[in-house]
Amino acid sequence: MAESEELQVGTDDVFLTKFLHYTHWDTIKAYQAIHAYYDFKHKHPSWVARHPIEYYRKIFYGTHCRFVMPHADKNGRVLVIFKTVDAFQQFPDYLQGLIEMDDLIFESLLMLPRVQENGITVICDLQGTTRNFLRQFSPAFMKVVNEKNAVLPFTQRIVHIVQRGFLMHVTSTLFMPFMNKEFKERIFTHDGKNLSKLRDMVGYDCLPEEYGGPACNVLDTNLMYNHLSQNANYLEELQHYEKKKL
């Protein structure tokens, strides 16, 4: 790693162990996974965060659409909530902002030993989907989403899609054809009117109240944003890691 002329990355334990856990401590596969990740970054530079953490404050607190819960799910995975909130008028480059926010969130979660070992559970609440979102979801966009999913070094990523109504079903239908078979097997859909299956799969104690969890479990943007802020120096350093084409 340190002698590579192509990879301009760190060699600290946090960085290396996320790829080692991802490949079950196969050092050759871990090295290949690092190359694959930075090949993606080189090919799609607009699909990773490119600004200091403070730059994203307005969109975090202007949308309240990204959350992390204080307790892990029943399988020990950190639980995060992604909501679709239409803020296209408020933020002219809204979709780009969301792409970069999510990159920051994933990188920050991958710093945590629990996430490196167990992965994450994501609840994607699509109940706020509007036609403004659907206009953004071109086949080319979906293909890049799938490319990034393929290189993110999570040992496991379980996704629960909560949807209700015609537009939400359209959204999940648009995404699914572009997902690889392995990732599709980890995606579960739930009707927003009946969340009993979600509670059974994720666990009651960790769920937010609005998804059937305890009344004390509220969605709080501060938990996510403060986590990013506390790790700002490292996350901003990661933005400079790259793979140079020789």
Automatic annotation (TrEMBL):
One Pfam family cited in the UniProt record for this chain: CRAL_TRIO
Organism: Drosophila guanche (Fruit fly)
UniProt GO MF annotations: phosphatidylinositol bisphosphate binding
Domain CRAL-TRIO, residue spans: 54-219
GO cellular component terms, A-Z: membrane
Ranges in a coiled coil: none
Name of the protein in question: Blast:Alpha-tocopherol transfer protein-like
